[in-house]
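quick one before i forget lol
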Amino acid sequence: MLIEDISSPEFIKGMSNGELRELAYQIRKFLIKSVSKTGGHLASNLGVVELTLAMHSVFDFKKDRIIWDVGHQSYVHKLLTGRAGEFSTLRQFGGISGFPKTSESEYDAFNTGHSSTSASAALGLAHARDLSGENYNVVSVFGDGALTGGMIFEALNNAGHSDSKVIFILNDNEMSISQNVGALSKYLQQLRYKPEYYKSKDAIVELLSKLPVGADVATSTAKKAKNAFRKKVLPNTLFDNLGLKYVGPVDGHNIEDLKSVLERAKLSEKSYFIHIHTKKGKGYAPAEENPQLYHGISSGSGGNSTDYSKVFGDALLKLAEENEKIVAITGAMPLGTGLLDFSTKFPKRYFDVGICEEHAVTMAAGLAIGGFIPVVPIYSTFLQRAYDQILHDVCLQNLHVVLCADRAGIVGQDGETHQGMFDIAYLSHMPNMTILSPSSFSELEEMMDYAVNKHNGPITIRYPRGNTQYISKYKFEPYKIRVEKEGSDLLIISSGRMMKTASEVAEKLGATLLNMPTVFPFDEASLLDIARGKKLIVTIEDSVKTGGMGQIIGNVLLEHGIASPYLPCAFPNEPITHGTCAQLDKLYKMDTDSIIQRIEDKLNG
């Protein structure tokens, strides 16, 4: 049997449990082989094979709706819905997405890429179903890591007293990207240690139903006895107390048990909360032994080279050795943000708060008020979830909190939900905020020293994924604009990752090149002195056009009467698809040749 032969979930509808187990084995083989070539999220998908098979056996997701939290664990769902033949293009430019995409398939009900969102979306969809008088099931699948995020509890709290039915499935694999932390993780662990809870529940209910009843008094006595017995043997869980029907923990790799509980949830008129326990990386020994490493893998088998995240982590470690007031906060991503060594060396000064970017920022504000220097590395796309906390709790109080926007700008194969395109736009209008953008590893180290030891107030360092560098001949000075190359009256201004491209453009056109390592605020007087009399002013940035560096500079030029023609080169305000940085730069005319052409068209227009 070839996985590529599966054209729709109808393929599995008549399969026996034994045949489904064999299919699970074949799917794992396919995923390991395919994802090892394309790159992608391997361990999380290996863990949900049986769950996905069971769901597609019980539900019809042409009519019913499934919403995956984060969505990186939807590969098996994609295979069962006829996309196996396209898996060689997974996360590749022009290929299928590594996340659910409504434009890609009628089986994908909702686009996701961030954690803790699926329960809210599912409840909204259920309300829409009921208001429209339709009849279908809505299933929300999320991991235990998502339970560290407050938004999901807002949804579950709302769902508990709602008449709109949703089937919530907690895929508890004891991991998010890294090992889960916090009281909820310990609570789920306690539930996992009681497997008899699920197994005994039906038997006890059946036993209680056979208690004798007769006269009103006998009936009342029997009901009281049933309730007392139930509470004694099966005490309520947190999820029961929220008003949901809790079932679990269920073996997430036992197809027969999964199908049975899903069938019961399907027939119920009330919302279900199904707690399943799975093994991340199931069926592939290296991923089982190290699920954190195999959470997301790169294509091929190349070694890990130094990148900005590692440089950040090493720089912070060195600074923390010299300054005991430095503390670090992560939102469940110590490996991705370069904090593993810090967590080992300074465990008391390291805080993993789970997938809670909002909490991370406000907690940092509290640490700053208490006399410490909190450093908070969060991917740019996730930092935007803490917009209100950055403004309300940090900037309005002018607190010394160092935010590090990792993966700023184009990030590549993870696509539109992960592109870090908006941080300049949403940070630059906040009072007291300073934004830095290094163009090299050494400049990031210099910026870290300044941000931690010399700056006063909120500050963000935005740096890209990978290792693209432009090496300046100057040392970093805050707020200063650097003339990297004296040239003609064509002026090119850039920063960060795009400095490499800008320098190539300037070299080929003989232009004057400015570097703005401080994106905002900057030395306006120096900029105006340099800009006066130029025949064309060009900005090149790894950000969206609206609210980005180019618009900030354009406003300054306009305000001070600089009449030179102006060409801002930035990414459009639209979802940026997946692909390599080079492919996306070319697609959006942000590569060297395209920018040169745009400049020449402007000069000749």
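fyi The first strand starts at residue 65 and ends at 68.
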